[in-house]
Amino acid sequence: MPNETFFNLPKEKKQKLLDALHREFTKAPLATASIAKIIAYAEIPRGSFYQYFTDKEDAYFYIFNQQTSLAMEKFLCILQSNNGDLFDTCIEFYRLIVEEQFTFFRNALLNMNSKIEEALSGIFASKEKLDHFHQVQSQLDLASLKIENEEELFQLMKMISAITFHNIIEKFSKNLPLDESIHNYQAQLQFIKHGVLQQDVCYNNENQQTPPVHF
After folding, report:
1. What gap in Å lies between CA 90 and CA 170, rounded to an integer?
2. Which of 88, 110, 153, 205 fits a 20 to 30 Å CA distance from 18?
3. 120: which residues sit within 8 A by CB, 6+ positions away?
4. What helix, strand, coil percent values describe the chain, rounded to 5?
5. Residue 88 and residue 169: Cα distance in Å, rounded?
6. pLDDT digits (tens, 9 = 90+) for 74-119
7. How far apart (Å, rounded) are the C-alpha atoms in residues 97 and 106?
């Protein structure tokens, strides 16, 4: 978290510093981002930077958490506009990310660590962000899902989160065309949506009939 001196800055000066942080961290991952460039953009002395933030990582995760909160709000808005349809919402949200509307996440995803992964997973499901999870839950069309309890929903959202960010990373790292990237993502979501076993009947190794299993 920034120091109190940051929050006491005049509005325009604070916004200029935030713009400088966003600009640099969008262009470069945390490891190679330059404090020199940040203070040049913001037009502040280096000493002032350390009055506002403990270090570069402190500044980075402040911006990162702001962007994650915006993404969480956007996910909820899309879910609402899709009448609680989880899979239509995920596809629309995915398109929003890969079409560069959340450019900040590109370097974050390509340079993932456990802290970044944990924060991003909160967009879908996180024990640390249960309020958001319950907001998502309240907006979902649960009647359309084969979900029996909250824990099952939580596990479903974790799987979708993993697939979503895997595909975003693949899109950026391989520079896939947008249509191909979205097609791959939709195809993987279909496995979760419909399951991979035949609907009518399946057999175990002893050739005994067993019911199909679905996610």
Report:
1. 17
2. 110
3. 68, 105, 108, 109, 161, 165
4. 70, 0, 30
5. 20
6. 999 999 999 999 999 999 999 998 886 677 888 888 888 888 888 8
7. 9
